[in-house]
Specification:
Layout (H helix, E strand, L loop, with lengths): L2 H24 L6 H22 L3 H9 L1 H26 L3 H23 L5 H21 L4 H17 L6 H23 L9 H8 L1 H16 L4 H7 L2 H13 L6 H40 L1
């Protein structure tokens, strides 16, 4: 199997795990979301530290934490990703998995918009149109349901901000996420110690074992994603990632039996149309960049 094929397989696997993770968190509705988040941080930390120990890279972790600027950036990143995790867990525990899936559909367009606002990145006309269509979809949901899709917007916004912050780090994904959960660990321990209920209280050892799965469930798809990103084109990464919210939507509608209103049936095609335009534009840009690089290589040889 070629390296790019291995990359696609790894990415599909990662997105499948992310997309079906609602099934796991749906079994933890009896545990307060903030406590599930706390355990997710701690078990994720244990899993990541184990990986780095096996790889004999714990010294790299120490080096990353020795840089004060990087620590500040990673602290901000940890707050963004923890808010994203909490939003998703809260959505599942309150039977709003459908809205969570909308958030991850909207995320690529929010990320593009944030890149424009923060880094002054240029946007093609088609991309502006895609963002506009997504905005119309949000307005349709707000008008039809009587309330803005705050969970979807929150998930898209925090994950988009997390991506922008991570662009400023020169640390690998496993090391940086280990640092992030390490920085969150004191807060997680404090919550479990002083306010913990549910799994932290009188639940069985089996419940503790079940929630421990949050560690590998957090780490494994991230490692697979990092593996894939190094082997396939970013346009392919962007397209395959839509598998995640598609599976989330399927779980919400077909397994959790959450109601799909007429407003969702109007907004979803709008969002899919926006993503189609955005993806088409991204593929064109990717092809143009590769063509320009190829022309430059030929000119260099001549």
């Amino acid at each position: 199997m070629r390296e790019d094929q291995k990359g696609v397989l790894a990415l599909v696997t990662a997105c499948t795990v992310w997309g079906l993770s609602a099934l796991y968190y749906g079994q933890l509705r009896h545990v307060p979301p903030i406590e599930v988040l706390s355990y997710r941080c701690l078990w994720g930390l244990a899993f990541f530290l184990g990986i780095l120990a096996v790889q004999r890279r714990l010294s790299v972790l120490a080096q990353a934490l020795a840089n004060i600027r990087q620590v500040v950036v990673m602290l901000i990143a940890s707050l963004m990703i923890s808010a994203n995790w909490f939003g998703f867990i809260y959505a599942i525990s309150t039977n709003q998995a459908l809205e969570a899936s909308l958030g991850y559909y909207i995320f690529p367009l929010v990320a593009v918009l944030l890149g424009r606002l923060v880094f002054s990145e240029n946007l093609a006309s088609v991309q502006w149109v895609a963002i506009g269509i997504a905005a119309v979809a949000v307005m349709v949901l707000t008008a039809g349901l009587g309330v803005a899709p705050w969970i979807a917007l929150g998930l898209a916004g925090t994950f988009g901000a997390y991506g922008l912050i991570k662009k400023q780090l020169d640390v690998g994904p496993v090391v940086s996420v280990t640092c992030e959960v390490l920085l969150l660990a004191p807060l997680a321990i404090a919550w479990i110690w002083f306010r913990g209920t549910g799994v932290g209280g009188d639940n069985s050892l089996g419940a503790h074992a079940y929630i421990a799965i949050a560690g590998p469930l957090t780490a494994t798809p991230l490692i697979l994603f990092s593996y894939a990103a190094k082997r396939i084109r970013m346009a392919t990464v962007g397209l395959v990632q839509y598998l995640n919210p598609t599976l989330q939507l399927s779980v919400a509608a077909l397994i959790f039996l959450e109601p799909v209103t007429v407003w969702h049936m109007i907004a979803l095609p709008l969002i899919w149309s926006a993503l189609t335009l955005y993806s088409w534009s991204s593929v064109r840009q990717d092809r143009a960049a590769r063509k320009a690089a190829s022309s430059a290589d030929v000119s260099g040889i001549i």
